[in-house]
Specification:
The protein is mainly alpha-helical. It has one domain: Multidrug-efflux Transporter Regulator, Chain: A, Domain 2 (Orthogonal Bundle), CATH 1.10.1660. It is built from five helices and three strands. Strands 1-3-2 form a three-stranded antiparallel β-sheet. Strand 2 and strand 3 form a beta hairpin.
């Protein structure tokens, strides 16, 4: 039997599959990434990550946000400043989005050519 939270109708199993669900406390996120909590706060201050807040006001991170933080850590460990690492991650994300849009447009154009 699948349990459903009456607040939003989403099952616990669905939350486990959701990359955007804020499942990790700051302490757990820092432990998983091998960083300090101050590092995560710095990413929040840099406005790269905006973690959700629990009812008690504590930061909560999603798996997607942990992947971003891990990428920033790789760049910082490679000698980049935190500011430049954040900028690189933003640019990488924008480039990936542009590639997705380009692929979608190509597919739409190909489908249009086939229909003609």
């Amino acid at each position: 039997m699948q349990q459903v939270d009456t607040n939003d109708g989403i099952s616990a199993a669905d939350r486990l599959e959701d990359d955007d669900y804020p499942a990790y406390s700051m302490g757990r996120a820092a432990e998983i990434l091998g960083v300090t909590q101050a590092f995560l706060r710095a990413l929040d201050a840099a406005e790269l990550l905006t973690p959700q807040r629990s009812a008690g006001g504590h930061r909560r991170y999603s798996r997607y946000q942990l992947r971003i933080a891990a990428r920033v850590r790789e760049l910082v460990d490679a000698g980049n400043t935190l500011e430049s690492a954040c900028r690189i991650v933003i640019l990488e994300d924008q480039l990936a989005e542009a590639h997705r849009i380009n692929a979608d447009l190509r597919e739409a154009l190909d489908n249009r050519s086939v229909d003609s």
